[in-house]
Design goal:
Elements lengths: L3 E6 L4 E5 L2 E5 L3 H13 L7 E5 L2 E5 L4 E2 L11 H15 L14 H17 L5 H11 L9 E3 L8 E4 L2 E5 L6 E3 L1 H8 L7 H8 L5 H21 L10 H6 L3
Antiparallel strand pairs: 1-2, 2-3, 3-5, 4-5, 6-8, 7-10, 8-9
Helix pairs in contact: 2-6, 3-4, 3-7, 4-7, 5-7
Length: about 250
């Protein structure tokens, strides 16, 4: 009999695996609707939707393995990273979806959110002021005009599967929509910036690496407090706080 594996779980949603089926439990029906809609529109391989019965979405497992995980080693070859870059570029060049995505927040809204979060990180004693100030300065490079793209919005390295050097699919599309393409690249290389050149070999080099690094700092600053409050450890080796420390 297949065992139930808890893939990820927190107060907002949970993902379970039973054999070759993933069960996503999410009380936010709009978020599930957005995920299914994005998978149908995306020009890259996505999991097959087996059935939906709110608040549960059942998806078929993808073949292959991920390139790695945040805080863990990357097992992918340079060719696999390049293949990932090519798949991500195909997504970004696709016709725009109707929905704004997580990567599409306005500069005004992001600036306000970042300033508020930086203040809370320091006043709450989670991070030292010099670390926050330095990364807040680095994050400024992300605040520039950008052309909307079809973005995944939560393109963690653990969300893209490969079989050898071939991309077999991308999972977790609930944050997808119109947004800044470089946000996806920053999320994908978070904690694995040593593979950025390999990724861009497939994606294309018409991007600014400094903006990618800026998004990495920004994303990490916004994530630390949420992760701590939901039982995750951003202080683990290779995770968000290490990304912030690398800017010092």
């Amino acid at each position: 009999m297949d065992e139930v594996e808890v893939v990820v779980a927190h107060s907002e949603r949970a993902t379970l695996r039973v054999g070759d089926v993933f069960l996503k439990v999410d009380p936010d029906q709009a978020r599930i609707d957005a995920e299914v809609e994005a998978m149908a529109l995306a020009p890259v391989p996505t999991p097959e939707v087996l059935w939906r019965k709110p608040p549960v979405l059942a998806l078929a497992a993808l073949p292959g393995t991920t390139l790695g995980s945040l805080g863990g080693p990357s097992t992918g070859s340079p060719a696999a990273w390049a293949a990932a870059g090519a798949a991500i570029r195909e997504l970004h060049d696709a016709p725009l979806p109707a929905r704004p995505g997580r990567a599409g927040r306005s500069i005004v809204a992001l600036t306000a959110e970042l300033d508020r979060e930086c203040e809370l990180l320091v006043s709450g004693g989670l991070l030292p002021a010099d670390l926050v100030t330095r990364n807040r300065r680095v994050a400024e490079a992300a605040f520039r005009p950008w052309t909307p793209a079809f973005t995944h919005g939560d393109l963690q390295i653990a969300h893209l599967f490969v079989d050898g050097d071939r991309v077999t699919g991308i999972i977790d599309w609930s944050e997808a929509g119109r947004g800044d393409a470089l946000y996806d690249l920053a999320t994908f290389t978070l904690g694995h910036e040593e593979h950025l050149d390999d990724l861009l070999a497939g994606y294309g080099t018409d991007v600014d690496p400094d903006v990618i690094r800026a998004w990495s700092s920004l994303r990490s600053l916004l994530a630390v407090r949420w992760l701590v409050e939901h039982g995750f450890d951003p202080f683990a080796p290779g995770c968000e706080v290490d990304v912030l420390r690398s800017r010092m």
